[in-house]
Prior knowledge:
mainly beta
Amino acid sequence: xxxxxxxxKYLFVFLLFVGGFGVYAQESIIKFINTKIxxxxxxxxxxxxxxxxxxxxxxxxxxxxxLAENQAEVKxxxxxxxxxxxxxxxxxxxxxxxxxxxxxxxxxxxDGFAMVIDTQNQEQNAYYFSVNALGTLIDGIVEKIxxxxxxxxxxxxVWEAKTSIEGNNKVYELAIPLRALNFNAENSIFGIQFYVxxxxxxxxxxxxxxxxxxxxxxxxxTEKFSVENLPNKSSSKFAITPSLTTNYxxxxxxxxxxxxxxxxxxxxYNVTSSLKLDATINPDFSQIDVDQQVTNxxxxxxxxxxxxxxxxxxxxxxxxxxxxxxxxxxxxxVGANSDVQFGLKLSGNMSxxxxxxxxxxxxxxxxxxxxxxxxxxxxxxxxSKNFSTTGFLINRQETDKFEFVDDYNRVxxxxxxxxxxxxxxxxxxxxxxxxxxxxxxxxxxxxxxIWFNKRGLEWSASIRNVGRNYITDVGFTPRLYNYDAxxxxxxxxxxxxxxxxxxxxxxxxxxxxxxxxRFINYENNNYFDEEGTLSQSSHFYNxxxxxxxxxxxxxxxxxxxxDLKYGFDPLRNGNALQPDKYNFGLIKVGYNSxxxxxxxYRVNVQKGNYYNGKRIAGGMYLNYQxxxxxxxxxxxxxxVLDLGVLGKETFHLAQFTSEIFFNNRxxxxxxxQYNTQRDNFNINSxxxxxxxxxxxxxxxxxxxxxxxxxxKNWGVAFKxxxxxxx
Length: 726
């Protein structure tokens, strides 16, 4: 009887233990509480005492072993209108460090709190919200790209956050309107991950344990939250943003002045809570932010990311249809040559497992440039936990007023994605076909790739083939087009590419000096022409030592074999390299300082060969933070190419950025860029005032000179928009 009593005691304790875990599991719920709170960073509302807390944050960087020394606790609930979140970070220091007061400057160089919300729990894309310790808002989109995940801050929403300091503790309080999120009441599971950035310790801590071999925003590692009483429809149907742009331009060479006044309208309509219609009429697609210039020593075009908000909601549906360097849809092609008259986009979830993207944009006829209609239809289907597929149709068609003309380009295809249950394997297969008037045959593209990833070891392999007539007028396929500098023609030529890569690194968690050593980071790309002959073989090898403060010293070796078939003029002096076989390599050594200091810097030196000549290069980067009032940044790259009898040229690329912060909503940014390869000296100075959430006034001055500092053109632009939600 005594034995039975003891066993009953153990059974009772065991049931309590299991029950405790059951209660903890039930805490992964976002409760519905019908109340509204003021966002002030104080957490003095009684509702926060009714909400379960989530704690037990793990280390992610600089080491990824065990629970974090400085813990945090997060709470969240919703009232069918707002998702409310609060986080308390139990810091050991009373001070805070931030790098910027400018909206959408990534939080990596500041103390702050961040979260990703996968509202469809499909691990394809997610919303990103973060706030630094001084209350600056950062929002964006995380999207799946081939074998990994990428991140952009160009997407924006209206939301609110406040911060405060209580002793050493940092307090963050957020309110995110549910109308800003793409959710479905039939799928009430959200995948959410929480992050704390402490730049003073140079650390990232994270709620759901993830190892450093995975990307920080890998959506396969989110905590699953069940959301109580999700509304069936959004509380807001419309977001309307009218804007007015006045632009004065002066062509100093031709002595021509031009002033334009352009009104435009953007509308977003929530068809359902998970399906959104975007419309734009007479839009101003001018770049308020300038593209960062680069020195391009390759024979092919460089990719620049999309910045225009119209294309960014559910952008992964359209931009993730191919692979790196072979993509049938590149939104920056749309409206590149003439003004956009109007655009429509329907995107989101038709059901929990089916996503739809439909896009149509009409451009205007202008100065001999024919008007065009651009269309895209994309359907993504989750077949199972491991497999998803995407089918697409891209169309570019010449128009005469609103009638289609026979000049067209169409691309259609199918993609299949695979992910393993243990998240170590990713697979991707692509097939595409293009259709063009008067062009037939050799118009297909296929790709098959696989990635493996575990802590300390990654490898990948792929093979792809591009037919010479796989023409994607709205896409990005630079290697398909070969410019012959001798005959001044562009030759379209198909190719086959094989790629392999492997990376091995070792972590030293108990070392006082070392964080990790990257012993091997090797990548090889081979390109074969249409006859199967090797036309280029590129090898990349990198090793690096990362110290405890995450400063690093590194070594890079590049080696290329090129069977050059067409003349190439890298010096841009009219003396082209002749078709021949070339072997050349380059050694690069560099040092990166720790990034949690007021002054950060990077330096590198390079020496080697370049085709049949020699190349010496170097670069430096310096950033100084006058926290929190200003941020100054300067970089300089030099490339000296000596091709013997063809000539010698030195390309300089210098960039200076000055950011002055008056407060979180008013800042003055100046870019100065000097690029001798493009014969351009550019000054862009922008005063930006966010007078209400996502409503802006811009005053922008641009000035362009040649490399001899003779003015080419200059201009002044004033833009104002107003966002209204109904």
